[in-house]
Amino acid sequence: MKKIFTLLLITFSTLTIAQVDWAIKSIKEPTELESNTSSGTPIKVNLECENRGSSTIFAGDTIAYNLLLIDLKLSQVIAQIPNGFYLQVVTQDIPAGGTYNVIQENISLNSYPYESRDIRLGASSFIFDRTSPYVDSDSSNNSTFVDITWWNPQRWNVSVEDVAYNSDNVAVFPNPANDQLNVRLLFAESNAVNIELFDLTGKVVAVPNTNQFSTTNQYTFDVADLNKGVYILKVSNGNKVSTSKVTISH
């Protein structure tokens, strides 16, 4: 009898949790990403979502969503926006088969690419009722992707140049260096880049040329007067710090 009662209780609890099928039908915006050196990359989002279940989703429920940026050339996730989820309250009832646009115009990514990039933009979304949790009957349609271009500030065409970047998306060349050392950041944080060259005692021996601009994410060091040997290059890019060994060989 106790076992039967437990099974009935489980069945009743399952039935009292509403079943929904929430899906992202399409990503209407963005269709491209434009960037600038002062504020990075503003993003306007418009996700067309759909109630594919048999029950109405009511105003006052909450939509959770986030974005993912994948660099197609690197096959690398370059940003998740935000680290968790944005939350948006449903403003009107969504009947079965109805659609609802999730719109957000105030998203900003505080970085910009050195060169225009082909990226895959992914969006994920879920819906829940704080007082009576939903169970999504089909989680396979809660995400979708679209391929777009992330333009650099100069709107150059997507480059086919083959530059070797490390795991922090920093390229240092040539290495060994003779008279000049170049440092390129694939993605730079707006107004938050600092680059220094140290000797093995920890002394700063060189900084990038001050007569150049960082709008292209590329920096140049004059190293002709440095002694031959091994040095440490430190690149601070926002909260990320990358160090590399550099050899000077005249």
Helix-strand blueprint:
Elements: H1 2-16, E1 19-20, E2 22-29, E3 41-51, E4 62-71, E5 76-89, E6 99-109, E7 111-113, E8 117-128, E9 135-136, E10 143-150, E11 170-173, E12 180-185, E13 187-189, E14 193-198, E15 204-206, E16 218-222, E17 229-237, E18 240-248
Parallel strand pairs: 1-9
Antiparallel strand pairs: 2-3, 3-6, 4-5, 4-8, 7-13, 8-10, 11-12, 12-16, 14-15, 14-17, 17-18
Describe the structure concisely:
The chain has about 250 residues and is mainly beta.
How would you describe what is shown here?
- The chain has 250 residues and is mostly beta strands.
- It has two domains: 17-150, Immunoglobulins (Immunoglobulin-like); 170-248, Sandwich (Immunoglobulin-like), CATH 2.60.40.3080.
- It has one helix and 18 strands.
- It has a four-stranded antiparallel β-sheet with strand order 5-4-8-10, with no helix packed on it.
- It is elongated and about 75 Å long.
- The relative contact order is 0.17.
